[in-house]
Design goal:
Largest sheet of chain A: 5 strands, mixed
Radius of gyration of chain A: 28 Å
Helix content of chain B: 25-40%
Structural class of chain B: alpha/beta
Distance between the termini of chain A: 27 Å
Structural class of chain A: alpha+beta
Order of helices and strands of chain A: EHEEEHHHHHHHHHHEHHHHHHEE
Oligomer: heterodimer
Distance between the termini of chain B: 73 Å
Number of strands of chain B: 13
Shape of chain B: globular
Chain lengths: ~425, ~450
């Protein structure tokens, strides 16, 4: 059997047949279509979870609002020592110390709350600034303390509540995470274990990474180790929950590895889950069409081309040729294609807004012609999606994209 | 020598797909477009395309262009084929390692696509002059260097001619289509010299290179990368492990091993984990991962624009597309505006404002460090009392030595005054750039 199937240019009937088999066997299907300056990629997959999503702007997980005892003790010691540090030490103190010190001060005068909005964060940055040493030669002027600059820059992303992101919460609260069976995949087994952890500890496992920052080596490594150790501890606890389940389900302990659990914990704030819709459900209107319908309300959206291109494949199934094959037939085929298009839309429960005659005529003009560069663009994108699906890294499309080579734009929507 | 066999080359239906696009009108075709069989003939027999770069993007570009009917293609690339290229530069095979990329690429395409004539040049773009570049209808770049991009951009701009009324003579306009990729991100842009934004208009958009501060490397390492940089930047020049003045060769495993071992020592001194051979090589060679699919997509987008501009059958991209397929597939298209003070395309003499006590070195540093100029090794000449004077030039060692003392002199001491014209030459531009000195007291 195959891990993935990619279909290029199948007419509708065989495509539908293929898609039913693959949906049943839970094998992902990528459908790619290219015609003139247009094309689309459609992903059919039941469920796809991604642990390593590689987010573009990965925020750090410093937990300064809820430090555990070891972290708090270290930060407090450092903070207290700042008054009597040498200039060198002061300027090489890693910024989490600076943030922690000022956060304590702020909370004292703000009912225990952390800075909550733009105004307060601005005031918080001013507070940090007051801690900068003055120049020995010129007490009017601040010393150049890079660590304080870093602290102020970090306020927006680091001084936040260490909440559980929505995507992660949805996964932890999902049916599949809460009703484990002996068939449950590792992702759900670990999610279940993390859920237990969260229920008890009221927090996600610590990520354990420390971004590079201006600091002396010794203290950077000490601090890094504190985060690393806690992450290790948390992962161990979760691994125990996993083993507990596996035992009760009569499954081998090594089905889920320690490395897998550690990875899941490290990425817990960025997990993603995608659930799809079969071609059968989509075509017959029994799937969810609200997202696609929304796109269709906008007469300028390229989403309409997805339906016109689908109509071409149905045309091919019904007539055994492409619309607009010969010059003289372009006009008459446009009429036939329009008929198919309307029927297809109503079957799928979709109501495109705005005029579609131009879109349909344009596709007929192509007469099934493929421009190599347009196919190459779609091919490159589809190949990339295939690799994301097979490696389980980075987030695949969810679940249709239309490419318009006239405007050089890609439009995404979901069925 | 084989005789031309046009019947064999243009078998029935070979260009039928292209014909449908070029010989039919539709709702999306521009009103000015007149479908005609002549357009395809133009592509096949006349249209001359220059492809710069025969690497990741270049291979894709050549394949795409050849398959879309372009047959007069010239390709320039100064590199030779490396083993690590073979995973995505698909015109090359293992037996080709060490050979010129341009030559092997041309051979492959010419063999694979009957009738296609790719002419390779294994040299730098700077080795050609205006008369060479005038011979093309379109130029498309798949480069990995900003300096080279700026150079070809400057060359095409220098070829523009204007009539007595100051209007652009459009027959001297050669469009430049530029593509760039980095990991999962890429961009494609259409530049119409003299009309639209050019490469230098957006110079300050290019991301700065990641360089670790020397003090971190020397005194407070925290990351494995810092340890590797310590070995590369500080230890190697000091210890010269492979002989005096032997530079680091990133492809020589013995060099990398030496750096790796020294990095490991440093790392263990500080308790830093994570130094590996692979990381060492990555840092030394400054490897940015190249992804075949991103190259395929960006080259495809560029080819589509070449096709549109060559045939006028469709409106071109206007004018900058950003692409990212890390999370789903994302594109963003916008019209990059011209920078009215652009060094390359504004035809304006750039002002340089300095105090009379400022040293010549300050001027050089400004030209190098300013985000608007980002020059590499500028040389400055001027005219004082009618006589040409070279203030400083870096490219010729004897002149560099002779003019080096000028760097310490002030502008006033050098005989410059407010309003002087300075002529600056640099590798980022094929022709010198004129500046007007505004000297303050």
């Amino acid at each position: 059997l195959f891990s993935l199937v990619i279909s290029c240019g199948l007419p509708e009937k065989p495509l539908l047949q293929l898609s039913k088999i693959l949906w049943k066997e839970n094998i992902p299907l990528l459908v790619v279509k290219s015609s003139g300056f247009l094309g689309y990629i459609r992903l059919q997959i039941r469920e796809h979870f991604i642990v390593e999503t590689h987010p573009d702007n990965r925020t750090s997980d410093l937990r300064l609002d809820t430090p555990w005892p070891e972290l708090e003790a270290w930060l407090q010691t450092q903070a207290d020592a700042m008054e009597t540090m040498t200039r060198e030490q002061h300027g090489h103190t890693p910024y989490p110390v600076i943030l922690y010190k000022n956060l304590c001060e702020w909370r004292r005068t703000h009912d225990g709350n952390i800075p909550a909005n733009y105004k307060e964060k601005k005031q918080f940055k001013e507070l940090i600034k007051t801690g900068i040493l003055k120049r020995e030669q010129n007490p009017e002027v601040d010393e150049d303390e890079e660590n304080f600059e870093e602290a102020m820059r970090a306020v927006n992303t680091v001084i936040t509540h260490s909440n559980i992101p929505a995507n992660t919460l949805n996964i932890l609260n999902d049916e599949s995470a809460n009703n484990l069976t002996s068939q449950s995949e590792n992702f759900w087994v670990i999610a279940n274990a993390v859920k237990r952890f969260v229920d008890l500890e009221k927090r996600l496992p610590v990520e354990g990474l420390l971004p590079d920052m201006f600091s002396d080596s010794a203290r950077y490594i000490e601090l890094h180790n504190i985060y690393r150790d806690k992450a290790s501890q948390d992962a161990e606890t979760i691994l125990r929950h996993v083993h507990h389940f596996l035992q009760s389900a009569n499954r081998a302990r090594d089905v889920v590895t320690e490395k897998e659990v550690q990875r899941f914990c490290r990425e817990s704030r960025f997990l993603r889950l995608e659930r799809g819709c079969s071609l059968e459900a989509e075509f017959s209107g029994t799937g969810s069409t609200s997202n696609l319908q929304n796109s269709l309300e906008d007469p300028d959206s390229d989403a309409i081309y997805y339906l016109v291109l689908r109509a071409v494949d149905r045309y091919t199934s019904e007539y055994g040729c492409v619309p607009g094959e010969t010059d003289v037939e372009v006009e008459s085929d446009t009429v036939k294609l329009k008929g198919i298009f309307s029927k297809l839309c109503s079957e799928a429960g979709l109501h495109p807004q705005g005029a579609q005659d131009d879109h349909i005529h344009e596709i007929c003009r192509y007469g099934g012609a493929e421009l190599h560069s347009v196919s190459a663009f779609l091919g490159g994108c589809a190949a990339h999606e295939a690799i994301k699906l097979l490696t389980g890294q980075f987030v695949p499309i969810d679940n249709i994209v239309v490419y318009n080579a006239v405007s050089s734009n890609v439009t995404t929507f979901k069925v | 020598m084989e005789v031309d066999e046009p019947a064999r080359e243009n078998w029935n239906g070979r260009w039928s797909h292209l014909r449908k696009i070029l010989e039919r009108k539709g709702p999306l075709t521009p009103t000015a477009f007149q479908p005609s069989p002549d357009i395809l003939q133009f592509l096949l027999d006349n249209c001359k395309i220059l492809v710069i770069g025969a690497g990741g993007l270049g291979c894709e570009l050549l394949k795409n262009l050849a398959l879309m009917g372009f047959r007069q293609i010239t390709v320039i690339d100064m590199d030779t084929i490396d083993l690590s290229n073979l995973n995505r530069q698909f015109l090359f095979r293992q037996k080709d390692v060490g050979r010129s990329k341009a030559e092997v690429a041309a051979e492959f395409i010419n063999k694979r696509i009957p009738g296609c004539q790719v002419t390779p040049h294994n040299c730098k773009i700077q080795d050609f002059d205006e008369s060479f570049y005038r011979g093309f209808h379109l130029v498309v770049c798949g480069l990995d260097s900003i300096v080279a991009r700026r150079w070809i951009n400057g060359m095409l701009h220098s070829m523009l001619e204007y009539d007595e009324d100051g209007d652009l003579d459009k027959t001297t306009l050669i469009p430049l289509i530029d593509g760039g990729t980095e990991g999962f991100k890429g961009n494609a842009r259409v530049i119409l010299p003299g009309l639209t934004a050019c490469i230098d208009c957006t110079l300050d958009l290019f991301p700065p290179q990641v360089n670790f501060p020397l003090c971190t490397i020397a005194h407070t390492p925290r990351l494995p990368e810092h340890c590797i940089e310590y070995a590369r930047v500080l230890l190697w020049p000091k210890e010269n492990p492979f002989g005096d003045d032997t530079p680091i060769d990133g492809d020589d495993p013995s060099h990398i091993t030496w750096i790796y071992e020294k990095s490991t020592e440093r790392a263990s001194q500080y308790g830093i984990q994570g130094v590996t051979y692979r990381l060492t090589q990555g840092v030394v060679k400054n490897i940015i991962p190249a992804v075949a699919s991103t190259n395929a997509v960006i080259a495809a987008a560029c080819t589509t624009e070449v096709f549109k501009l060559a045939t006028s059958c469709c409106n071109p991209l206007n004018n900058y597309m950003v692409f990212n397929d890390a999370d789903g597939i994302y594109t963003y298209v916008y019209e990059q505006e011209r920078n009215p003070n652009c060094v390359a395309c504004s035809n304006r003499s750039q002002p340089l404002v300095f105090n009379k006590d400022a040293k010549l070195k300050d001027v050089i540093d400004h030209l190098v460090n300013s985000p608007s100029f980002q020059m590499k090794g500028p040389g400055i000449t001027t005219s004082i009392e009618g006589k040409n004077k070279t203030l400083y030039m870096q490219t010729v060692p004897s002149i560099e030595e002779k003019t080096r003392p000028n760097l310490k002199l002030s502008l006033e001491e050098l005989g410059l005054h407010d309003g002087c014209q300075l002529v600056v030459a640099d590798s980022t531009s094929p022709s010198p750039i004129l500046f007007q000195l505004k000297m303050k007291d």
